Model the fold of this input.
Amino acid sequence: MLLTILLTACSSRETVYEGIRFPETSTSKVTFQEHTIPADCSAFSHLLMNTRMNSSGQDIATAMHLEAQEKGADLVLVGMARAMVEAELEANRYDYYGPEYVYNFNKTWLGWKFGFDAWNDADNLIGLGTDRWGSAEINFEHSLLIQAVFLRCGEEI
Done:
């Protein structure tokens, strides 16, 4: 019985967030362009979002906003997205890649340099921009892998 419990605990796919966080926010905005990040924004979390199968653009946007707000982000930079044809996820998952400290985005951002193992294992690039983000009419049959950065703006950090 003990072996069963230990194996079950080891195979859990749920990620426990141990990174930097701020007080929860009630709203968050999204941008897809790095140059639009205000000068007073600090990055505190790099992540890859793994979406559940058959998510709409609205499902994805809502899930990302809720995750960001829970961690204290008021702005999210969304990067590229790739299909994960064989993943068949039934729930969204978030994999975090640091950073170890909060940094001013405009002065220190070095680009999408995290999660390469997962990123390289994914399939084709998928268009996920302002025309699809938040749309209830757009449905993604397969799970997606989405790059993101959580930011906190307007505070001295």
Summary: DSSP finds four helices and nine strands in the chain. The first strand starts at residue 29 and ends at 31. Helices lie at 2-10, 57-71, 105-108, 116-121. The CA atoms of residues 1 and 129 lie 48 Å apart.
